[in-house]
Amino acid sequence: MNAEPFGDSLFRCLAIGCFGMAVLLLGVEGSGMGGTPKPDDLPTTLYQTAKPTRSKLVRAVDSQYHLLVDLSDRRVYLYEGKKQKKSYPVSIGQPGWETPTGSFKVTRMDEHPVWQQPITGVIVHPGMANPLGDRWIGFWTDGSSYIGFHGTPDEAQVGLAISHGCLRMRNSDIRQIYDLVGIGTPVKVQK
Fold first, then answer.
1. Given CB 3.0 to 4.6 Å as the disulfide criterion, which of 18, 66, 137, 174 pairs with 186?
2. Homologous superfamily of 6-190 in CATH?
3. Where are the domains positioned within the chain?
4. SS3 (DSSP) at 45
5. How far is CA 26 from CA 18, 113, 163, in A?
6. pTM score
């Protein structure tokens, strides 16, 4: 019999706990919901930051880059001008929590974001248990809910329709995009 290291068991417990809370959130917040979410239907604050990286908040956009998200193939494409430079797989919003479509701009960027659990209010600091991974690139908000690109501690779920509207990425992938875009970078999300 092989014993699991304590850290692996703890991580699995935390992951199962987060999944359980997501299911609970869907039951509490999602009852009766269907179709594309409206701002009033989206969950309460899923993302909250403490001590954002100031240099990223004031960095001007380099107009040569833009992002195109194609929900049908669950990928984000990085363009430099009209030339596609790279593409990355993303998780998209699950049924009832679809990722909003349209034309947006990056409004917020944070390294090592802090996440606030929307039901319990528990603050999750940066680290392995943080569901936002180590980068946040926000492009949509209604003032209380936020949608954006972020990393994830569970990279095996990248490519699935599993989020509450956000676009989850492998941490290594979002770091690459984070270093190239800035506040104001155009983001287009299409079906």
1. 66
2. L,D-transpeptidase catalytic domain-like (2.40.440.10)
3. 6-190
4. coil
5. 12, 23, 11
6. 0.69
